[in-house]
Amino acid sequence: MPNERKNLLIISFLSVWLMGFSSQCGNESVKTISSMGFTGEHYLEISNNASIKSFVSGDFAIEIWACGDSSRADLARTLVMLGNNNGGNEIAIYQGAIDSSMVIVYIDDNLFGMFSVSELDWSAREKHYLCLSRADNFFSFYVDGRRLKSVSMENTDLDIGSSNMLIGADYDLPGVNSNPGNYWVGTIDEVRIWTKAIQSSEVSFHNKYPDKLTEHYSSNGLEPLIGIWRFNNEQTGIIPDESGSGNDAVIRGNGESLFWVSE
Question: Is the pTM of this model over 0.85?
């Protein structure tokens, strides 16, 4: 990992730790921002670039920490989506419509699974951890540390073409990078993307200890991390990519509708 990327990650995590430390040392009014709130009117866009395109071409992992909302989901609500030049879902993860225990996953523009997850209730506003990982042609999907599906998908050739990556919305036909919809309603604590597979033991650790990234990995271990959006500071316009890869997320839609959640 280039030194500037290492330094950026270290500074980022130290700043968050210091904020939490100061709040415990006599200044109780200081609260740490923990997540971004979505009301179904905005989303985040990471522009198509070489690192985003290459990230899906080999081993990868996507990790998301998110809370739903008590409002009824008449449509599927998007956590993360990468499209393709046909206007489809190359990779997408949704909260299912109507059924508040449902998670829907698309891979290579095909339905990977509709999972009705016990102990998952998006309407309860509880934080959940989701992870989609690929090792060669073996794809695994986890919710709250539990593996729901793990299967070999031979001849899977993921190609996002000119599609952007979205957090909190998806694109709909016709066209590419057009007609955003299926907005997220709830909060998102953190999103990470890796150019490596995450094994079940790591998934279990991340589920139990979501804030121990720098303790769990050496600096070399963090090199495959090409995107991390932590929502720990109030931002306007852009959410910085704290991995140092330059994959900043632009706030699209009604930016005034978002809100910040403090611990």
Answer: yes
